[in-house]
Design a protein that fits this description.
416 residues; 10-stranded mixed sheet
């Protein structure tokens, strides 16, 4: 039967070439949007590596001399560290909170980042730098890499650093746990000071539409920063609220702690619930995703009309041919399967083109998240594409052909 179908396809090669070109274009378009949407969804579902539920950010600032409450305490840098440290001590004693942290350019779901070059012997890699205090890991519930790794956060100070899983792999540690205790440099000079790797943490993504990036945690020099910065507004103060206390928290927290968080000229400016900040940060990504989805639906609708319409019309033109075959003894079921197999075989001849398209787009980095090692990516996108096209061909062939085989042969061949 296969040889017979191939003979039919060859004899009708003129119309088949036009259909084949249409299927190639349809498969490339569907694959492109299928790959984009499935990869976005897969990246969004990846573990974040941190937990921002019940997390808030406190923003502090300094009164200006124009404020009636401003106090002339001399140079701000002299008093700011002592005053701010007093505020942090009060936060750590607050019964409503689980943990408190100080950091700079380290919070997820925001655009502020810093990078360093990290050197290990002759290898080096550019990494995100997260300057944090010990409490940062409790505020965001970041976990050590490896189930049997002891909790070494108490030793996170001085020249101790913590690597992310991705950075440990990049620097050639295998197994990853072997990074613990090794020495790294933040300068290319081999005589520059070294830092000791305290351990490795699981990767922490910056937002739901980003992938894991190489990162290194450094102890945040709070005193040095506060003596150099003009205002504490540049610092990130993170708090994790106890779940049972996280109801109308901002109002109750200000009522209970507002006066205690005003020391010298430093005052609590505002409080941000970090899940709300996440939603605001994601808004641009979600708008772009909605545009892509609408465009994909429009393309899919065009493909539906084009493919189903073309095969429907083609099958309608074969009405007399079907009648002749039935008059010569062909069974209706066999005819249905033959024409359906012809359409699906024509579709199968287009498979190499999405495969080549995937390779070329990946090679020239035209794909979103092209650097991801996703073994399922080409198989999933192409499988979904051909499942959809196969269904369209089934509808375009089966429905008119089924109606045609129900027509008496003498009626079907009246015009022959």
């Amino acid at each position: 039967m296969l040889k017979h179908i191939l003979n039919i396809m060859w004899n009708e090669r003129g119309s088949n070439v036009a259909l084949w070109v249409e299927l190639v274009l349809a498969s490339l378009l569907l694959w492109f949007f299928t790959d984009k949407l499935t990869t976005y969804y897969r990246v969004y579902q990846m573990p974040m590596g941190c937990d921002i539920e019940h997390v808030y950010k406190l923003n502090f600032d300094m009164l200006t001399p124009n404020s009636p409450e401003w106090q002339d305490l001399g140079p701000d840098s002299v008093h700011m560290y002592e005053d701010f440290q007093r505020i942090i001590d009060r936060l750590e004693r607050c019964p409503m909170l689980e943990a408190t942290s100080l950091s700079r350019n380290s919070f997820p779901h925001q655009g502020s980042n810093s990078t360093y070059s990290v050197y290990r012997d002759t290898m080096h890699s550019n990494m995100l730098v997260r300057q944090v205090t010990k409490g940062f890991f409790d505020v965001f519930k970041i976990e050590w890499y490896g189930a049997d790794t002891p909790d070494l956060r108490a030793d996170f100070s001085g020249r101790a650093v913590i690597l992310s899983e991705a950075s440990a792999k990049q620097l050639g540690y295998s197994p990853i746990e072997s990074a613990r205790g090794d020495k790294l440099r933040l300068e290319s000079d081999s005589d520059s000071p070294t830092f000791s790797v305290l351990g490795v943490y699981k990767d922490m993504r910056m937002h739901h539409f980003s992938t894991s990036r190489k990162a290194i945690f450094l102890p945040f020099p709070v005193e040095e920063a506060l003596r150099q910065l003009p205002t504490p507004a540049y610092l990130e103060v993170g708090i994790r609220v106890k779940p049972e206390e996280d109801h109308d928290f901002m109002h109750r927290f200000r009522a209970e702690m507002g006066d205690q968080l005003r020391v010298g000229n430093i005052f609590l400016d505002n409080i941000e619930r970090w899940t709300e900040q996440r939603d605001l940060f994601h808004k641009g990504f979600m708008n772009e995703l909605h545009r892509i989805t609408l465009l994909a639906l429009f393309v899919a609708a065009c493909v539906v009309l084009g493919v189903i319409g073309a095969f429907w019309y083609r099958t309608q033109l074969r009405r007399e041919q079907i009648g002749i075959r039935m008059a010569l003894g062909d069974r209706p079921r066999r005819l249905l399967w033959m024409y359906l197999a012809e359409g699906e075989l024509l579709l199968a001849f287009t498979v190499p083109f999405p495969v080549i398209g995937y390779y070329l787009c990946g090679h020239f980095e035209l794909l979103d998240y092209a650097h991801l090692e996703l073994s399922w990516r080409p198989l999933l996108g192409i499988s979904i594409t051909y499942a959809i096209l196969g269904l369209f061909i089934l509808l375009g062939v089966w429905l008119p052909a089924r109606k045609a085989v129900q027509v008496p042969p003498c009626e079907a061949i009246r015009n022959e």
